[in-house]
Write a structure and sequence with these properties.
Elements: E1 6-7, H1 18-30, H2 40-60, E2 67-70, H3 73-83, E3 92-96, H4 101-112, E4 116-120, H5 133-137, E5 141-147, H6 159-169, E6 172-176, E7 195-199, E8 210-213, H7 240-252, H8 270-284, E9 289-291, E10 303-308, H9 318-327, E11 330-331, H10 347-351, E12 362-366, H11 373-377, H12 379-389
Parallel strand pairs: 1-11, 3-4, 3-5, 5-6, 6-7
Antiparallel strand pairs: 2-8, 7-8, 9-10, 10-12
Helix pairs in contact: 1-7, 2-7, 3-4, 9-12
The structure holds pyridoxal-5'-phosphate (PLP).
Length: 391
């Protein structure tokens, strides 16, 4: 297979920025000690760790007590769901029908512990059915966990509106913002949310590190014990280089686009958003290409998702299309990274009630600032060649 040259799989992961690699290298070289040690090496490590944590907090409008550094969003969502409920009498937890498997898994754990897991249905564009808001937040609901930017179909949810409604009812609100953080700088202190998860590799930081933002008194218990680092919320010797890499990546995001007014971020780079809109239009002009998820205003600004049929109207295999796109020099995905390796109906395309024959025909192109306008102009031609080569 030819080495794909145009990387259009940002929702799976993103290339680390040079300054991220440099920051990590510096820590590996100069601050490799255990930050709990009391000697000079340890103090240097502790200082590097504190600096990185402060940088993360500054970028996100949070304070240090509100930040737990984790191994990634998978761990963050588990800590959010399990850690905020550990000492509560089991009640009801609400998640959407289009959550990442990590959230579904954490909710399944709660179910084993006696919690009722309620699925909040979505419409054909992947947006939550807001007519059900009152019903979903009514007792015995204690916790709501919803993604803010769906990885496979790009749909944004009205998280702020739901967060406000949760506040009024004393219901905890967690959002999985893993896909959003590359597109909108958040101001944690202004958000009506109790818990927010993210992963650094989705915003050009390193893989294997993520964050959970929380509020005082929201976490009740950690999900594993040990040395008591991070105020006991996340035991284990801190990964300082990864934390520094995440801090650098967050700080490198272009200036703030406030998200509090309009819930749909314009995208941190308006040029990229324009290119995305144009590419989506170009793909949609083609017969047999149908977009999935919400329209351009209600979806992640860097995200395109479609289902594809051939000239005879027969659904094309998304996996085969991705393979042929790689031959044409485009790195894309047929859905979420976690499920795209397997051949089965997409759970998300099933949840939005897409006709069954199309549920294996998904294609996702997720863009980033490493792509030029000229790169993107070449994609429709490459797409045509790839589709024609699908058997
Ligand atoms: C919405 C969402 N949540 C959670 C995750 C899990 O992130 P990680 O694999 O970094 O733990 C991902 C990764 O694809 C994601 O897209």
């Amino acid at each position: 297979m030819a080495l794909a040259e145009l990387y259009c799989d940002a929702s799976a992961t993103t290339p680390p920025l040079p300054e991220v690699l440099e920051a990590m290298q510096t820590v590996h070289r100069d601050a490799w000690a255990n930050p709990s040690s009391l000697h000079g090496y340890g103090l240097a490590a502790a200082e590097a760790l504190e600096r990185a944590r402060q940088k993360i907090c500054t970028a996100l409008g949070a304070v240090s007590d509100e930040l737990v550094v984790t191994s990634g969003a998978t761990e963050s969502v588990h800590l959010a769901l399990l850690g905020s409920t550990a000492l509560s009498k089991p009640g009801r937890v609400v998640i959407s029908a289009v959550e990442h498997p990590a959230v579904e898994a954490a909710a399944a754990r709660l179910s084993q512990l006696g919690w009722q897991v309620q699925i909040w249905p979505v419409g054909p564009d992947g947006q939550l059915n807001m007519d059900l808001l009152e019903e979903m937040l009514a007792p015995p609901t204690q916790l709501v966990s919803l993604n803010w930017g769906q990885s496979e179909i790009g749909t944004l949810q009205p998280i702020l509106q739901i967060g406000e409604a949760c506040r009024r009812r004393g219901v905890l609100c967690h959002t999985d913002a893993t896909q959003l953080l590359s597109q909108a700088r958040l101001d944690w202190k202004a958000l009506p949310l109790d818990l927010l998860s993210g992963s650094a590799h989705k915003f050009q930081g390193p893989r294997g590190v993520g964050l959970l933002l929380t509020r005082p008194e929201v976490l009740q218990q950690s999900i594993f014990g040990g040395g008591g680092q991070q105020q006991g919320w996340r035991s284990g010797t801190e990964a300082i280089a990864l934390t520094a890499g995440m801090a650098e990546a967050l700080s490198a995001l272009p200036p703030h686009h406030p998200i509090t007014g309009s819930e749909a971020p314009a995208g941190l780079t308006p040029e990229l958003r324009r290119c995305r809109d144009r590419l989506l239009d170009q793909l949609m002009e083609r017969k047999g290409v149908q977009s999935t998820g919400a329209g351009p205003e209600q979806r992640l600004p860097h995200h395109i998702s479609v289902v594809v049929s051939d000239a005879d109207g027969q659904p094309v295999s998304g996996r085969e299309l991705v393979r042929q796109l790689a031959v044409q020099g485009v790195a894309a995905s047929s859905g979420s990274a976690c499920s795209s390796g397997r051949s089965q109906d997409s759970a998300v395309l099933t949840a939005i009630d897409l006709p069954a024959p199309l549920r294996r025909s998904g294609l996702r192109l997720s863009l980033g600032p490493w792509l030029s306008e000229a790169d993107l102009e070449s994609i429709p031609r490459r797409f045509d060649a790839a589709r024609a080569a699908c058997t």
